[in-house]
Design a protein that fits this description.
The chain is 0% helix and 57% strand. By secondary structure, it is mainly β.
Amino acid sequence: MQGYSGGHDGPIWSMACSGDLLFSGSSDQTIKVWDTRANFTCLTTLQGHEGMVLALCVSNGTLYSSASDSMICVWDIKTYRLLETVSAHSNPHLYTSSQRQVSLQWIA
């Protein structure tokens, strides 16, 4: 995006969208909120992580972010307020499931 201002100070590792909002997570430990209707204007910067923001997910008006700091942050996307932080454990296993009744174990 040439000509925009307010970008990240490092590479973008994750993105998610909700309506006209685009969220980007970066190695600069921040999440930027972009208005896609206004030529990708940066609306605000969310700060709450102490590591690279590696994953973003939006569900029911809530943004979930995870980072290399082993934290999950829960954000209200209307107020951009940090609602909660969840501390991850040191277990390198991740379990996922799907609507097709398939469960997988991932080992880091």
